[in-house]
Write a structure and sequence with these properties.
This protein has 519 residues and is of the alpha/beta class. The protein contains 14 helices and 26 strands. The protein folds into two domains: 299 residues, ANL, N-terminal domain (Rossmann fold); 98 residues, ANL, C-terminal domain (GMP Synthetase, Chain A, domain 3). Strands 2-1-10-9-11-12-13-14-15 form a nine-stranded mixed beta sheet.
Length: 519
């Protein structure tokens, strides 16, 4: 267990705390320093990129805050954001927090049906939408687009940051639930303060850093690692919103003299496969950062060999961001994401119950102490799911782990059936529910399937309703059905037909047996 005593050992946030004000504090000390660079064309000169100083960001965020309050939004009101990868996304997210409202960032990959669910479940009464992502919300939901966001900045004088308490709601994100429906994770204003152990416990961040993040604005990995933390440290954040091409990343690293680069392991794998990194000047890069899925020892060694740089991994979850990592001060140990960050109180608890941490070497459920300021306020209107994740003074996320004698965490998979797809948590129930609606499907079960070392995909095992029909054993209609109703990262990559599914004596599907099931 991390820490000399049980409980979060780091500094707690001030009683009055606003996350947006905290992140943009550099505007008062270095208003002319570049805070954000948005690149649309990787081939264009650096000077053509969209650039924001800390002073400009601070003013724009406070103008957006004033505009939202001018719309009649009260503190705590939810605002759903369904927009493309533009700076408006960041301005709305931080502007809402600055106003004391609660933004709901949503992925641009969500289908209309999925977006409708988030809007209804969150109770949001305002939705900001790009034209290409427009849905038809109920009449009582106010809609505004990019032109309206620009009007918020143009027509309102900047207001002071809301005088919020550290425990007041700040933002709402959705993740997979055990029931198959996504559940809202409500975070407090203090969540930004709760990221402080990551600064040196993962990044080794400095105010002169230039951090290039490979994610889109609408991903919480990007909002946190790509914006929140660089800004809170007075660094420069670089984001790309042009055509997705794996060749742009080393080009951007070299062109913008990135000192830190953040991505998921899958992207590092593609970068190494499709680029010769020796053709690029990466001398400014100190190291890479990776999270979202496990980093294989082979990929780590390949990156080290080709670049001569280190790659630091972190493990976390939507409910508490990242809290275990390697860093410049915590040497990388292949096969482990690292150690609990300084001040964190993290333990492995017995699977069957109890609050006493297990000794090194014994496998149990990964748990974070409830005193951690980065931990969520709770699940939005899901008391039944909330009851499942708390055990006394601990929050339990469902990962099976053990800590070795040196304090490094070793991962043993999930204790439930939740899958990891490209850094997103995906419930098999959600995918199964979608596929079960297709008329050719009698039964279906979904799981992760390892296709090669370090690479797994979502696979659906389907019992066809009529295998003798022409479409009875055809995967194409099922894949098309999934793409119509599910975000791309939730869609199965493999459809495997079988005449039955493995079940327990009580009739429950044994998803963990699916990978070896061929009948």
């Amino acid at each position: 267990m991390s820490g000399a005593r049980r409980g979060y050992a780091g500094e707690q946030p001030p009683e009055r705390f606003n996350m947006a004000r905290y992140c943009l504090a550099a505007a008062r000390a270095t208003p002319d320093k570049v805070a954000l660079v948005v690149v649309s064309d990787a081939q264009a000169p650096v000077e053509r990129a969209e650039t924001w100083t800390y002073g400009q960001l601070d003013e724009a965020v406070r103008r957006v805050a004033a505009g939202l309050r001018g719309l009649g939004l009260e503190p705590g009101a939810r605002l759903m954001i369904r927009m493309g990868n533009t700076s408006d996304y960041a301005l709305l997210f931080f502007g809402a927090i600055a106003a004391g409202c609660v933004p709901l960032p949503s992925s641009a990959q969500l289908t209309d049906q999925e977006a409708d669910f988030l809007l209804a479940d969150s109770g949001a009464r305002v939705i900001a939408m790009s034209d290409d992502l427009a849905i038809r919300p109920p009449p009582d939901v106010r809609v505004f687009g990019p032109a309206d966001v620009a009007a918020l900045r143009a027509n309102h004088a900047p207001q002071a940051y809301a005088d919020t308490a550290a425990d007041d709601p700040a933002f709402l994100v959705y993740t997979s639930g055990t029931t198959g429906q996504p559940k809202g994770v409500l975070h407090a204003q203090r969540s930004a303060w709760g990221r402080r152990p990551m600064y040196q416990g993962w990044y080794g961040i400095r105010s002169d850093d230039v951090i290039l993040h490979a994610g889109a604005f609408n991903w919480t990995y990007t909002l946190g690692v790509g914006l929140t933390d660089p800004w809170a440290n007075g660094a420069t954040a670089v984001l790309y919103n042009g055509p997705r091409d794996v060749a742009v990343w080393p080009l951007l690293m070299a062109k913008f003299r990135a000192t830190l680069f953040a991505a998921v392991p899958g992207l590092y794998r593609q970068i190494l496969k499709y680029n010769d990194l020796r053709d690029f000047d990466l001398s400014s890069l100190r190291h890479g950062l990776t999270a979202g899925e496990a980093l294989s020892a082979a990929l780590l060694e390949q990156w080290r060999t080709i670049t001569g740089k280190e790659l630091y991994e972190a493990l976390g979850m939507s409910e508490c961001s990242t809290y275990i990592s390697s860093s410049p001060s915590v040497p990388v140990k292949a096969g482990s994401p690292g150690k609990p960050q300084q001040g964190r109180c993290v333990a492995a608890l017995p699977v069957e119950g109890g609050e006493e941490p297990l000794p090194p070497g014994e496998t149990g459920l990964l748990a974070v102490h409830r005193g951690d300021p980065g931990l969520m306020l709770g699940y939005w209107n899901r008391p039944e799911e909330e009851a499942l994740v708390y055990r006394g003074e601990w929050f339990i996320g469902g990962d099976l782990v053990h800590f070795d004698a040196d304090g490094y965490m070793i991962y043993h998979g999930r204790n439930d059936d939740v899958m990891n797809a490209m850094g997103y948590r995906v419930s098999p129930l959600e995918v199964e529910h979608c596929l079960s609606q297709h008329p050719a499907v009698a039964e279906v079960a979904v799981t992760e399937l390892t296709v090669r070392e370090g690479v797994s995909v979502i696979a659906a095992f389907v019992v066809p309703r009529d295998p003798d029909e022409p479409e009875g054993m055809d995967a194409a209609p099922l894949l098309a059905h999934a793409r119509q109703h599910l975000a791309a990262y939730k869609c199965p990559r493999e459809i495997l037909f079988t005449d039955s599914l493995p079940r327990t004596a009580n009739g429950k599907v044994r998803r963990r047996d699916l990978a070896n099931w061929r009948r």
